[in-house]
Amino acid sequence: MAYTGGLTETQTWKDLQTHFNSIHDTHMMDWFGENPDRFHDFNAEAAGLRLDYSKNRITADTMSLLFRLARERDLPAHIGAMFSGENVNPSEQRPALHTALRNFSDREIYVNGEDIMPEIRCTVQRMEEFCWKIRRNQWRGYTNRPFTDVVSIGIGGSFLGPKLASSALKPYWDSRLNIHYLANIDGSHITEILRRLDPATTLFIVQSKSFGTQETLKNALACREWFLNNGGEEEDLGKHFTAVSSNIEKATEFGILEENIFPMWDWVGGRYSLWSAIGLPLALAIGIDNFRELLRGAHEMDEHFRTAPLESNMPVIMALLGVWYVNFFGVNSHAILPYDHYLRSLPAHLQQLDMESNGKSVTIDGKPVDYQTGPVIWGGVGTNGQHAFHQLLHQGTHFTPSDFIMPMNSHNPIDHFHAVLVSNCLSQSQALLQGKSYEKALQELLDKGISQDEAEALAPHKVIPGNRPSNTLYFEKSTPRTVGALIALYEHKVAAQGMIWGVNSFDQWGVELGKVLGGKVLGALNKTSCAEDFDASTTGLIKAFHQMQSLL
Questions:
Q1: Is residue 129 flagged as an active site residue?
Q2: Of these residues, 515, 527, 543, 546, which one is catalytic?
Q3: How many domains does one find in the chain?
Q4: Is the full-model pTM beyond 0.90?
Protein backbone atom coordinates (compact mmCIF):
# COMPACT_ATOMS: atom_id res chain seq x y z
CA MET A 1 0.00 0.00 0.00
CA ALA A 2 1.61 3.26 -1.12
CA TYR A 3 1.99 6.25 1.12
CA THR A 4 1.26 9.73 -0.09
CA GLY A 5 4.34 11.92 -0.02
CA GLY A 6 4.87 15.50 0.96
CA LEU A 7 3.95 15.16 4.64
CA THR A 8 5.32 18.56 5.59
CA GLU A 9 3.63 20.25 2.63
CA THR A 10 0.09 19.27 3.60
CA GLN A 11 -2.30 21.92 4.84
CA THR A 12 -2.84 20.03 8.07
CA TRP A 13 0.89 20.01 8.81
CA LYS A 14 1.01 23.77 8.19
CA ASP A 15 -2.05 24.23 10.42
CA LEU A 16 -0.33 22.22 13.14
CA GLN A 17 2.72 24.46 12.85
CA THR A 18 0.57 27.57 13.17
CA HIS A 19 -1.23 26.05 16.14
CA PHE A 20 2.11 25.09 17.75
CA ASN A 21 3.34 28.68 17.41
CA SER A 22 0.24 29.91 19.20
CA ILE A 23 0.41 27.57 22.23
CA HIS A 24 3.99 26.37 22.69
CA ASP A 25 4.69 28.92 25.43
CA THR A 26 1.49 28.16 27.36
CA HIS A 27 1.97 26.43 30.71
CA MET A 28 -0.13 23.31 31.16
CA MET A 29 -1.11 24.49 34.65
CA ASP A 30 -3.09 27.27 32.98
CA TRP A 31 -5.12 24.70 31.07
CA PHE A 32 -5.74 22.68 34.23
CA GLY A 33 -6.95 25.86 35.91
CA GLU A 34 -9.31 26.64 33.04
CA ASN A 35 -10.73 23.12 32.73
CA PRO A 36 -11.42 21.09 35.90
CA ASP A 37 -12.45 18.13 33.69
CA ARG A 38 -9.14 17.97 31.83
CA PHE A 39 -8.25 14.59 33.38
CA HIS A 40 -11.50 13.08 32.09
CA ASP A 41 -11.26 14.84 28.72
CA PHE A 42 -7.81 13.39 28.02
CA ASN A 43 -8.23 9.84 29.25
CA ALA A 44 -8.54 6.57 27.34
CA GLU A 45 -9.26 2.95 28.22
CA ALA A 46 -8.53 -0.31 26.40
CA ALA A 47 -7.93 -3.96 27.28
CA GLY A 48 -7.67 -3.36 31.02
CA LEU A 49 -5.31 -0.37 30.67
CA ARG A 50 -6.05 3.28 31.37
CA LEU A 51 -4.16 6.19 29.87
CA ASP A 52 -4.08 9.63 31.45
CA TYR A 53 -2.65 11.95 28.80
CA SER A 54 -3.91 15.18 30.35
CA LYS A 55 -0.35 16.19 31.36
CA ASN A 56 0.59 16.88 27.74
CA ARG A 57 1.10 20.19 25.99
CA ILE A 58 -2.10 19.85 24.03
CA THR A 59 -5.56 21.30 23.78
CA ALA A 60 -8.69 19.89 22.21
CA ASP A 61 -7.70 21.77 19.06
CA THR A 62 -4.28 20.09 19.07
CA MET A 63 -5.84 16.64 19.15
CA SER A 64 -8.40 17.57 16.52
CA LEU A 65 -5.61 18.60 14.15
CA LEU A 66 -3.57 15.49 14.93
CA PHE A 67 -6.56 13.23 14.24
CA ARG A 68 -7.06 15.13 10.97
CA LEU A 69 -3.42 14.41 10.11
CA ALA A 70 -3.95 10.69 10.85
CA ARG A 71 -6.92 10.55 8.50
CA GLU A 72 -5.04 12.53 5.88
CA ARG A 73 -2.29 9.88 6.08
CA ASP A 74 -5.00 7.23 5.63
CA LEU A 75 -4.15 5.65 8.97
CA PRO A 76 -7.31 3.47 9.30
CA ALA A 77 -6.63 1.93 5.87
CA HIS A 78 -2.99 1.20 6.76
CA ILE A 79 -4.08 -0.44 10.01
CA GLY A 80 -6.54 -2.57 8.08
CA ALA A 81 -3.84 -3.51 5.56
CA MET A 82 -1.56 -4.74 8.34
CA PHE A 83 -4.23 -6.93 9.91
CA SER A 84 -5.39 -8.35 6.58
CA GLY A 85 -1.95 -9.63 5.63
CA GLU A 86 -0.97 -7.19 2.90
CA ASN A 87 2.76 -6.72 2.22
CA VAL A 88 3.21 -3.78 4.59
CA ASN A 89 6.95 -4.58 4.62
CA PRO A 90 7.70 -4.07 0.91
CA SER A 91 11.51 -3.99 1.22
CA GLU A 92 11.35 -7.62 2.34
CA GLN A 93 8.19 -8.43 0.38
CA ARG A 94 6.26 -9.75 3.34
CA PRO A 95 3.36 -8.93 5.64
CA ALA A 96 3.69 -8.15 9.35
CA LEU A 97 1.30 -10.60 10.98
CA HIS A 98 2.42 -10.95 14.56
CA THR A 99 -1.20 -10.15 15.41
CA ALA A 100 -2.22 -13.47 13.83
CA LEU A 101 -0.23 -15.28 16.54
CA ARG A 102 -2.71 -14.08 19.14
CA ASN A 103 -5.87 -14.13 17.03
CA PHE A 104 -8.64 -15.54 19.22
CA SER A 105 -11.37 -14.63 16.75
CA ASP A 106 -12.76 -16.82 14.01
CA ARG A 107 -11.20 -14.57 11.34
CA GLU A 108 -9.22 -16.38 8.69
CA ILE A 109 -5.91 -14.73 7.84
CA TYR A 110 -4.27 -15.44 4.52
CA VAL A 111 -0.64 -15.29 3.36
CA ASN A 112 -0.06 -16.12 -0.31
CA GLY A 113 -3.59 -17.48 -0.57
CA GLU A 114 -3.25 -19.86 2.40
CA ASP A 115 -5.02 -19.50 5.72
CA ILE A 116 -2.22 -19.43 8.32
CA MET A 117 -4.45 -19.84 11.39
CA PRO A 118 -4.52 -23.70 11.38
CA GLU A 119 -0.69 -23.85 11.50
CA ILE A 120 -0.58 -21.24 14.26
CA ARG A 121 -3.11 -23.17 16.36
CA CYS A 122 -1.21 -26.39 15.71
CA THR A 123 2.02 -24.77 16.94
CA VAL A 124 0.36 -23.53 20.13
CA GLN A 125 -0.96 -27.07 20.68
CA ARG A 126 2.59 -28.44 20.23
CA MET A 127 3.86 -25.87 22.71
CA GLU A 128 1.18 -27.01 25.16
CA GLU A 129 2.23 -30.65 24.83
CA PHE A 130 5.90 -29.71 25.19
CA CYS A 131 5.26 -27.65 28.33
CA TRP A 132 3.09 -30.40 29.81
CA LYS A 133 5.86 -32.97 29.36
CA ILE A 134 8.55 -30.75 30.90
CA ARG A 135 6.49 -29.31 33.76
CA ARG A 136 5.07 -32.75 34.72
CA ASN A 137 8.44 -34.50 34.44
CA GLN A 138 7.30 -36.69 31.56
CA TRP A 139 10.30 -35.52 29.52
CA ARG A 140 13.52 -36.05 31.41
CA GLY A 141 17.24 -35.71 30.83
CA TYR A 142 19.67 -38.47 29.91
CA THR A 143 20.03 -39.63 33.55
CA ASN A 144 16.23 -39.83 33.90
CA ARG A 145 16.17 -36.86 36.28
CA PRO A 146 13.60 -34.08 35.70
CA PHE A 147 14.78 -30.73 34.34
CA THR A 148 15.51 -27.98 36.81
CA ASP A 149 16.88 -25.34 34.42
CA VAL A 150 16.06 -24.04 30.94
CA VAL A 151 18.56 -21.95 28.94
CA SER A 152 17.05 -19.90 26.14
CA ILE A 153 19.70 -18.99 23.54
CA GLY A 154 18.79 -16.10 21.26
CA ILE A 155 19.40 -12.42 20.64
CA GLY A 156 17.37 -9.35 19.74
CA GLY A 157 13.67 -10.14 19.65
CA SER A 158 14.37 -13.78 20.50
CA PHE A 159 15.79 -12.52 23.78
CA LEU A 160 14.32 -9.15 24.77
CA GLY A 161 10.61 -9.96 24.41
CA PRO A 162 10.65 -13.29 26.30
CA LYS A 163 12.98 -11.87 28.95
CA LEU A 164 10.65 -8.91 29.50
CA ALA A 165 7.56 -11.09 29.79
CA SER A 166 9.36 -13.59 32.01
CA SER A 167 10.44 -10.93 34.50
CA ALA A 168 7.07 -9.15 34.26
CA LEU A 169 5.25 -12.37 35.15
CA LYS A 170 7.66 -13.74 37.75
CA PRO A 171 4.81 -14.22 40.29
CA TYR A 172 3.34 -16.83 37.92
CA TRP A 173 6.52 -18.92 37.55
CA ASP A 174 6.69 -22.62 38.29
CA SER A 175 9.14 -22.67 41.19
CA ARG A 176 10.60 -25.98 40.01
CA LEU A 177 12.07 -24.44 36.84
CA ASN A 178 14.75 -21.77 36.53
CA ILE A 179 14.79 -19.91 33.21
CA HIS A 180 18.04 -18.37 31.97
CA TYR A 181 18.42 -16.10 28.94
CA LEU A 182 21.72 -16.21 27.05
CA ALA A 183 22.15 -13.56 24.36
CA ASN A 184 25.35 -11.54 24.40
CA ILE A 185 28.35 -13.21 22.79
CA ASP A 186 30.48 -12.67 25.83
CA GLY A 187 32.46 -15.44 27.48
CA SER A 188 31.67 -13.99 30.89
CA HIS A 189 27.91 -14.22 30.36
CA ILE A 190 27.85 -17.86 29.27
CA THR A 191 30.38 -18.83 31.95
CA GLU A 192 28.29 -17.26 34.71
CA ILE A 193 25.18 -19.12 33.54
CA LEU A 194 26.70 -22.56 32.95
CA ARG A 195 28.81 -22.68 36.09
CA ARG A 196 25.64 -22.93 38.18
CA LEU A 197 23.97 -25.68 36.12
CA ASP A 198 23.97 -29.47 35.97
CA PRO A 199 24.06 -30.77 32.37
CA ALA A 200 21.88 -33.73 33.35
CA THR A 201 19.01 -31.45 34.39
CA THR A 202 19.41 -28.60 31.87
CA LEU A 203 17.31 -28.07 28.75
CA PHE A 204 18.48 -25.73 25.97
CA ILE A 205 16.22 -23.88 23.52
CA VAL A 206 18.11 -22.49 20.51
CA GLN A 207 16.15 -19.59 18.99
CA SER A 208 17.24 -18.48 15.52
CA LYS A 209 15.16 -18.26 12.35
CA SER A 210 18.18 -19.09 10.17
CA PHE A 211 19.97 -21.20 12.77
CA GLY A 212 22.97 -19.16 11.71
CA THR A 213 22.77 -15.92 13.71
CA GLN A 214 26.37 -15.41 14.78
CA GLU A 215 25.81 -14.74 18.47
CA THR A 216 23.14 -17.41 18.89
CA LEU A 217 25.01 -20.13 17.02
CA LYS A 218 28.29 -19.40 18.82
CA ASN A 219 26.57 -19.62 22.21
CA ALA A 220 24.65 -22.76 21.17
CA LEU A 221 27.84 -24.52 20.05
CA ALA A 222 29.55 -23.59 23.32
CA CYS A 223 26.59 -25.01 25.30
CA ARG A 224 26.72 -28.15 23.17
CA GLU A 225 30.42 -28.58 23.88
CA TRP A 226 29.86 -27.98 27.60
CA PHE A 227 27.14 -30.62 27.63
CA LEU A 228 29.33 -33.20 25.84
CA ASN A 229 32.34 -32.44 28.03
CA ASN A 230 30.38 -32.89 31.24
CA GLY A 231 28.75 -36.28 30.93
CA GLY A 232 26.43 -36.00 27.93
CA GLU A 233 26.84 -38.06 24.78
CA GLU A 234 26.00 -37.31 21.14
CA GLU A 235 22.92 -39.53 21.34
CA ASP A 236 21.71 -37.51 24.34
CA LEU A 237 21.59 -34.18 22.51
CA GLY A 238 18.01 -34.75 21.35
CA LYS A 239 16.84 -34.96 24.96
CA HIS A 240 18.49 -31.71 26.00
CA PHE A 241 18.37 -29.43 22.95
CA THR A 242 15.31 -28.02 21.18
CA ALA A 243 15.00 -25.22 18.64
CA VAL A 244 12.74 -22.55 17.27
CA SER A 245 13.87 -22.13 13.67
CA SER A 246 12.84 -22.27 10.04
CA ASN A 247 16.11 -24.03 9.09
CA ILE A 248 15.30 -27.62 9.96
CA GLU A 249 18.36 -28.99 8.13
CA LYS A 250 20.90 -26.99 10.17
CA ALA A 251 19.05 -27.65 13.42
CA THR A 252 19.05 -31.43 12.86
CA GLU A 253 22.74 -31.34 11.89
CA PHE A 254 23.35 -29.74 15.28
CA GLY A 255 21.75 -32.76 16.93
CA ILE A 256 18.20 -31.55 17.53
CA LEU A 257 15.38 -33.96 16.69
CA GLU A 258 13.04 -32.67 13.99
CA GLU A 259 9.98 -33.27 16.18
CA ASN A 260 11.50 -30.86 18.72
CA ILE A 261 11.91 -27.99 16.25
CA PHE A 262 9.21 -25.32 16.40
CA PRO A 263 8.50 -23.06 13.39
CA MET A 264 9.34 -19.41 12.78
CA TRP A 265 7.59 -17.58 9.99
CA ASP A 266 8.91 -14.89 7.64
CA TRP A 267 5.89 -12.73 8.36
CA VAL A 268 6.88 -12.33 12.02
CA GLY A 269 9.68 -9.87 12.70
CA GLY A 270 12.13 -10.66 15.48
CA ARG A 271 10.98 -7.84 17.74
CA TYR A 272 7.40 -9.13 17.43
CA SER A 273 8.22 -12.81 17.95
CA LEU A 274 7.39 -13.15 21.65
CA TRP A 275 3.91 -14.35 20.69
CA SER A 276 5.26 -17.26 18.65
CA ALA A 277 7.18 -20.34 19.77
CA ILE A 278 9.94 -17.86 20.66
CA GLY A 279 7.84 -17.50 23.81
CA LEU A 280 8.46 -21.17 24.66
CA PRO A 281 10.76 -20.48 27.66
CA LEU A 282 8.12 -18.09 28.98
CA ALA A 283 5.39 -20.72 28.52
CA LEU A 284 7.56 -23.20 30.42
CA ALA A 285 7.97 -20.72 33.26
CA ILE A 286 4.37 -19.55 33.65
CA GLY A 287 2.45 -22.46 32.12
CA ILE A 288 0.58 -22.61 28.84
CA ASP A 289 -2.69 -21.36 30.35
CA ASN A 290 -1.02 -18.15 31.51
CA PHE A 291 0.76 -17.89 28.16
CA ARG A 292 -2.64 -18.04 26.44
CA GLU A 293 -3.84 -15.26 28.76
CA LEU A 294 -0.85 -13.17 27.65
CA LEU A 295 -1.92 -13.75 24.04
CA ARG A 296 -5.52 -12.93 24.91
CA GLY A 297 -4.56 -9.59 26.45
CA ALA A 298 -2.58 -8.72 23.33
CA HIS A 299 -5.53 -9.80 21.16
CA GLU A 300 -7.85 -7.48 23.07
CA MET A 301 -5.50 -4.58 22.36
CA ASP A 302 -5.30 -5.70 18.72
CA GLU A 303 -9.06 -5.54 18.37
CA HIS A 304 -9.14 -2.14 20.04
CA PHE A 305 -6.45 -0.82 17.68
CA ARG A 306 -8.18 -2.35 14.66
CA THR A 307 -11.73 -1.20 15.36
CA ALA A 308 -11.80 1.76 17.79
CA PRO A 309 -12.39 5.28 16.40
CA LEU A 310 -9.19 7.29 16.19
CA GLU A 311 -10.40 9.71 18.89
CA SER A 312 -10.56 6.90 21.49
CA ASN A 313 -7.84 4.64 20.07
CA MET A 314 -5.11 4.40 22.72
CA PRO A 315 -2.18 3.37 20.47
CA VAL A 316 -3.16 6.04 17.94
CA ILE A 317 -3.37 8.73 20.63
CA MET A 318 0.09 7.82 21.94
CA ALA A 319 1.48 7.73 18.40
CA LEU A 320 0.10 11.18 17.58
CA LEU A 321 1.49 12.65 20.80
CA GLY A 322 4.87 11.27 19.77
CA VAL A 323 4.60 12.91 16.35
CA TRP A 324 3.58 16.17 18.03
CA TYR A 325 6.68 16.27 20.20
CA VAL A 326 9.23 14.93 17.70
CA ASN A 327 8.15 17.02 14.74
CA PHE A 328 6.94 20.25 16.28
CA PHE A 329 8.77 20.60 19.61
CA GLY A 330 11.94 19.06 18.18
CA VAL A 331 12.15 16.42 20.91
CA ASN A 332 14.66 13.62 20.23
CA SER A 333 14.11 11.22 23.13
CA HIS A 334 11.34 9.53 25.11
CA ALA A 335 11.58 8.03 28.61
CA ILE A 336 9.88 4.79 29.73
CA LEU A 337 9.45 4.79 33.52
CA PRO A 338 7.81 1.64 34.94
CA TYR A 339 7.00 1.80 38.64
CA ASP A 340 6.97 -1.96 39.02
CA HIS A 341 10.01 -4.13 39.73
CA TYR A 342 8.61 -6.88 37.52
CA LEU A 343 8.45 -4.48 34.54
CA ARG A 344 12.10 -3.41 34.88
CA SER A 345 13.00 -4.95 31.48
CA LEU A 346 10.34 -2.95 29.63
CA PRO A 347 12.61 0.00 28.62
CA ALA A 348 15.14 -2.38 27.00
CA HIS A 349 12.43 -4.18 25.03
CA LEU A 350 10.88 -0.92 23.87
CA GLN A 351 14.27 0.37 22.80
CA GLN A 352 14.48 -2.37 20.20
CA LEU A 353 10.80 -2.18 19.30
CA ASP A 354 10.76 1.57 18.68
CA MET A 355 14.26 2.39 17.46
CA GLU A 356 14.62 -0.66 15.20
CA SER A 357 11.17 0.02 13.76
CA ASN A 358 11.18 3.78 13.22
CA GLY A 359 14.86 4.67 13.16
CA LYS A 360 14.54 5.30 9.41
CA SER A 361 15.60 8.13 7.12
CA VAL A 362 13.72 7.16 3.96
CA THR A 363 10.03 6.66 3.34
CA ILE A 364 8.50 3.30 2.58
CA ASP A 365 8.84 4.29 -1.08
CA GLY A 366 12.60 4.87 -0.70
CA LYS A 367 12.55 8.69 -0.69
CA PRO A 368 14.53 10.72 1.88
CA VAL A 369 12.41 12.17 4.65
CA ASP A 370 12.55 15.90 5.36
CA TYR A 371 11.41 15.55 8.97
CA GLN A 372 12.54 13.72 12.10
CA THR A 373 11.39 10.17 12.77
CA GLY A 374 11.95 7.82 15.69
CA PRO A 375 13.25 9.24 19.00
CA VAL A 376 15.82 7.67 21.31
CA ILE A 377 14.06 5.45 23.84
CA TRP A 378 15.51 5.12 27.32
CA GLY A 379 14.41 4.78 30.91
CA GLY A 380 14.59 2.80 34.12
CA VAL A 381 12.55 1.40 36.94
CA GLY A 382 10.78 3.18 39.77
CA THR A 383 12.47 5.27 42.38
CA ASN A 384 15.88 4.05 41.19
CA GLY A 385 15.49 6.39 38.25
CA GLN A 386 14.54 9.27 40.53
CA HIS A 387 17.97 9.03 42.12
CA ALA A 388 19.75 8.70 38.79
CA PHE A 389 18.41 10.56 35.75
CA HIS A 390 15.26 12.37 36.90
CA GLN A 391 17.44 15.41 37.55
CA LEU A 392 17.71 15.84 33.78
CA LEU A 393 13.97 15.32 33.34
CA HIS A 394 13.21 18.13 35.78
CA GLN A 395 15.96 20.69 35.19
CA GLY A 396 17.74 19.74 31.97
CA THR A 397 18.00 22.20 29.11
CA HIS A 398 15.64 20.16 26.94
CA PHE A 399 12.58 18.20 27.90
CA THR A 400 11.89 14.52 27.41
CA PRO A 401 8.28 13.29 27.23
CA SER A 402 7.86 10.44 29.70
CA ASP A 403 5.57 7.44 30.12
CA PHE A 404 4.92 6.55 33.75
CA ILE A 405 3.66 2.94 33.97
CA MET A 406 2.07 1.77 37.17
CA PRO A 407 -0.01 -1.14 38.52
CA MET A 408 -2.34 0.03 41.29
CA ASN A 409 -1.88 -3.22 43.23
CA SER A 410 1.24 -5.18 44.10
CA HIS A 411 1.80 -8.93 44.01
CA ASN A 412 3.74 -8.46 47.23
CA PRO A 413 1.82 -6.08 49.53
CA ILE A 414 4.45 -5.53 52.24
CA ASP A 415 3.46 -2.90 54.84
CA HIS A 416 2.73 0.30 52.89
CA PHE A 417 5.44 -0.19 50.27
CA HIS A 418 3.14 0.03 47.28
CA ALA A 419 1.44 3.20 48.46
CA VAL A 420 4.88 4.79 48.81
CA LEU A 421 5.83 3.57 45.32
CA VAL A 422 2.61 4.93 43.79
CA SER A 423 3.05 8.22 45.63
CA ASN A 424 6.50 8.59 44.07
CA CYS A 425 5.14 7.85 40.61
CA LEU A 426 2.32 10.37 40.90
CA SER A 427 4.47 13.05 42.50
CA GLN A 428 7.12 12.80 39.78
CA SER A 429 4.63 13.41 36.99
CA GLN A 430 3.09 16.16 39.13
CA ALA A 431 6.50 17.82 39.60
CA LEU A 432 7.22 17.63 35.87
CA LEU A 433 3.89 19.38 35.32
CA GLN A 434 3.99 22.05 38.02
CA GLY A 435 7.65 22.89 38.45
CA LYS A 436 8.77 25.53 40.95
CA SER A 437 9.16 29.24 40.27
CA TYR A 438 12.02 31.43 41.45
CA GLU A 439 9.64 33.32 43.70
CA LYS A 440 8.43 30.17 45.39
CA ALA A 441 11.93 28.79 45.79
CA LEU A 442 13.07 32.10 47.30
CA GLN A 443 10.17 32.25 49.73
CA GLU A 444 10.72 28.66 50.89
CA LEU A 445 14.34 29.48 51.70
CA LEU A 446 13.41 32.66 53.53
CA ASP A 447 10.80 30.74 55.53
CA LYS A 448 13.60 28.43 56.70
CA GLY A 449 15.41 31.42 58.19
CA ILE A 450 18.09 31.75 55.50
CA SER A 451 19.35 35.26 54.95
CA GLN A 452 18.13 37.27 51.99
CA ASP A 453 21.53 37.21 50.25
CA GLU A 454 21.98 33.47 50.74
CA ALA A 455 18.41 32.79 49.61
CA GLU A 456 18.82 34.85 46.47
CA ALA A 457 22.07 33.02 45.65
CA LEU A 458 20.56 29.55 46.20
CA ALA A 459 17.07 30.07 44.77
CA PRO A 460 18.04 29.83 41.05
CA HIS A 461 19.39 26.33 41.67
CA LYS A 462 16.01 25.26 43.02
CA VAL A 463 13.95 26.59 40.10
CA ILE A 464 12.21 23.80 38.14
CA PRO A 465 10.59 24.98 34.92
CA GLY A 466 7.75 22.44 34.90
CA ASN A 467 5.47 22.26 31.85
CA ARG A 468 7.16 18.99 30.92
CA PRO A 469 4.80 16.42 29.44
CA SER A 470 4.08 12.89 30.56
CA ASN A 471 1.61 10.07 30.12
CA THR A 472 0.49 7.83 32.96
CA LEU A 473 -0.48 4.27 32.05
CA TYR A 474 -2.15 2.52 34.94
CA PHE A 475 -3.91 -0.76 35.50
CA GLU A 476 -5.12 -2.97 38.33
CA LYS A 477 -2.23 -5.45 38.47
CA SER A 478 0.56 -6.94 36.34
CA THR A 479 -1.18 -10.12 35.15
CA PRO A 480 -0.54 -12.13 31.98
CA ARG A 481 -3.50 -10.41 30.38
CA THR A 482 -2.49 -6.83 31.24
CA VAL A 483 1.16 -7.44 30.35
CA GLY A 484 0.08 -8.82 26.97
CA ALA A 485 -2.08 -5.75 26.39
CA LEU A 486 0.72 -3.40 27.48
CA ILE A 487 3.30 -4.86 25.09
CA ALA A 488 0.78 -4.90 22.22
CA LEU A 489 -0.12 -1.28 22.99
CA TYR A 490 3.44 -0.16 22.34
CA GLU A 491 3.73 -2.38 19.25
CA HIS A 492 0.74 -0.61 17.73
CA LYS A 493 1.82 2.84 18.90
CA VAL A 494 5.12 2.38 17.07
CA ALA A 495 3.40 0.99 13.96
CA ALA A 496 0.92 3.88 13.86
CA GLN A 497 3.74 6.41 14.13
CA GLY A 498 5.54 4.73 11.26
CA MET A 499 2.35 4.81 9.18
CA ILE A 500 1.98 8.55 9.78
CA TRP A 501 5.65 9.22 8.99
CA GLY A 502 5.38 6.93 5.95
CA VAL A 503 8.37 4.75 6.94
CA ASN A 504 8.64 0.96 6.95
CA SER A 505 8.38 0.01 10.62
CA PHE A 506 8.95 -3.69 9.89
CA ASP A 507 12.41 -3.92 8.32
CA GLN A 508 15.83 -3.24 9.87
CA TRP A 509 18.42 -2.93 7.13
CA GLY A 510 20.55 -0.71 9.30
CA VAL A 511 21.44 -3.75 11.40
CA GLU A 512 22.93 -5.61 8.42
CA LEU A 513 25.99 -3.49 7.62
CA GLY A 514 27.54 -4.02 11.03
CA LYS A 515 27.06 -7.78 10.66
CA VAL A 516 28.79 -7.84 7.26
CA LEU A 517 31.70 -5.70 8.41
CA GLY A 518 31.91 -7.69 11.62
CA GLY A 519 32.75 -10.83 9.65
CA LYS A 520 35.62 -9.05 7.89
CA VAL A 521 36.95 -7.59 11.13
CA LEU A 522 36.74 -11.00 12.81
CA GLY A 523 38.91 -12.48 10.08
CA ALA A 524 41.54 -9.83 10.74
CA LEU A 525 41.35 -10.36 14.52
CA ASN A 526 41.74 -14.13 14.14
CA LYS A 527 44.44 -13.69 11.45
CA THR A 528 42.49 -16.08 9.23
CA SER A 529 42.19 -13.56 6.43
CA CYS A 530 44.20 -10.67 5.16
CA ALA A 531 43.55 -7.31 6.72
CA GLU A 532 41.01 -5.34 4.77
CA ASP A 533 41.61 -1.82 3.66
CA PHE A 534 40.04 -0.53 6.86
CA ASP A 535 39.97 3.06 8.03
CA ALA A 536 42.89 4.12 10.22
CA SER A 537 40.86 3.89 13.42
CA THR A 538 39.67 0.31 12.81
CA THR A 539 43.17 -0.74 11.73
CA GLY A 540 44.66 0.79 14.86
CA LEU A 541 42.15 -0.97 17.10
CA ILE A 542 42.82 -4.35 15.42
CA LYS A 543 46.55 -3.86 16.04
CA ALA A 544 45.82 -2.96 19.67
CA PHE A 545 43.84 -6.20 20.05
CA HIS A 546 46.76 -8.28 18.75
CA GLN A 547 49.24 -6.43 20.97
CA MET A 548 47.16 -6.90 24.11
CA GLN A 549 46.51 -10.55 23.29
CA SER A 550 50.24 -11.12 23.14
CA LEU A 551 50.61 -9.83 26.71
CA LEU A 552 48.53 -12.69 28.14
A1: no
A2: 515
A3: 3
A4: yes
